[in-house]
Design a protein that fits this description.
2 copies of one chain form a homodimer. By secondary structure, chain A is mainly alpha-helical. The first copy, chain A, has 9 helices and 3 strands. Chain A has one domain: EF-hand (Recoverin, domain 1), CATH 1.10.238. Helix content of chain A is about 50%, strand content about 5%. Chain A starts with a helix and ends in an 8-residue tail after the last helix. Chains A, B: It comes from Carya illinoinensis (Pecan).
Chain lengths: ~200, ~200
């Protein structure tokens, strides 16, 4: 049975050096072995945390090499608020699962299979997951991806994840502060600044 | 007298090809000739507007070569809201003057003349112009400049301008929506998104 499992991966088998129990390493029960392996592959010092460069490498096995800007945004959105710029197994599993959903959305709305989606496909994709973002807001965000050539802006999966995370993330934060769906949200100064700054991605 | 002016720049002399009146090109009365020349030097097609790469070049004559990320943030903050990613003479003059003020602040608070300022100097610099930013907010923003080495973060003038513009800009937007200084600001969804997105700088 152990042999069968190793070959066919019907159950996760404990990666070398990590013992038998995934839960003890902080992964949620039921985490797919590929997720655990991707994490452990880059967590070489067995600290239980990975930084931005390591996350970039860990995700590249299943997705693609994301820009460090997108990687940093993902870390800011998924990390424990009290941690520095790093994520542990639980956050990594949540992030992996979230990216899988965004990949599915991207493929569904990339109707011409160009590997890129435009403003209208982005709007439809967000509408499909319950976010009706006004055209003016989409235009404002997408204008940041203009290359100065004046052509139509198209987003690859990396930029799509970045845009999607920004729009969904900010909208969710707004809704938290508008529990009665009045269309108006009220923030204290600290809450406002602490909420916006994680979306500002700086990297030199 | 014309010769004297050319040498000593006691009065602005009309740059070649632009005629006698600066105001007709949209510069505010009293704009220094260096500002006008810097703009005209890069506005080669005489369109009256300059884009990000041109702004980067125009500012480098007096300040430094800013990163395109900072340049784009500056354009977003200074441009006419209805324009695409470009600025005209009036906005350029305002931006130039603003950068001069930030340069003065930077030099005043860079006490050890290292060309870099740290978290505490940034806090003092912002306090000096009337912005008492909580340490937790500063720490959150400055953590974005960590290089992963775990060392103390120091900002050069480019990053200082970026941080300062973000903190001052967001605080000003908050205050606009808190006219009674209650400590609470209320936003509609569109106002909230339109306000935050310009601070998110994307550039590939």
């Amino acid at each position: 049975m152990a042999y069968f499992n190793r070959i066919f991966k019907t159950q996760p088998s404990a990666p070398h050096g990590y013992g038998e129990s995934y839960e003890q390493w902080g992964f949620p029960p039921g985490t797919h072995v590929d997720v655990i392996r991707s994490f452990q592959m880059v967590d070489r010092d067995r600290s239980g945390f990975i930084d931005d460069a390591e996350l970039q490498q860990a995700l590249s096995s299943a997705y693609q090499r994301f820009s460090l800007r997108t990687i940093r945004l993902l870390i800011f959105l998924f990390k424990n608020p009290n941690d520095p710029l790093r994520i542990g197994p639980k956050e990594f599993a949540a992030l992996w699962s979230c990216l899988g959903q965004w990949r599915g959305i991207f493929d569904r709305y990339d109707k011409d299979r160009s590997g890129k989606i435009d403003l209208f496909e982005l709007r439809d994709a967000l509408y499909g997951i319950g976010y009706a973002i006004p055209a003016s807001i989409l235009q404002l965000l997408i204008s940041k991806y203009e290359n100065g050539g004046g052509g139509r802006v198209e987003l690859n999966f990396d930029s799509f994840v970045e845009c999607g995370m920004i729009l969904k993330g900010l909208t969710d934060k707004f809704k938290e502060k508008d529990p009665k769906h009045s269309g108006l949200a009220t923030f204290s100064y600290d809450a406002f600044m602490s909420m916006v700054i994680p979306f500002l991605v700086s990297y030199d």
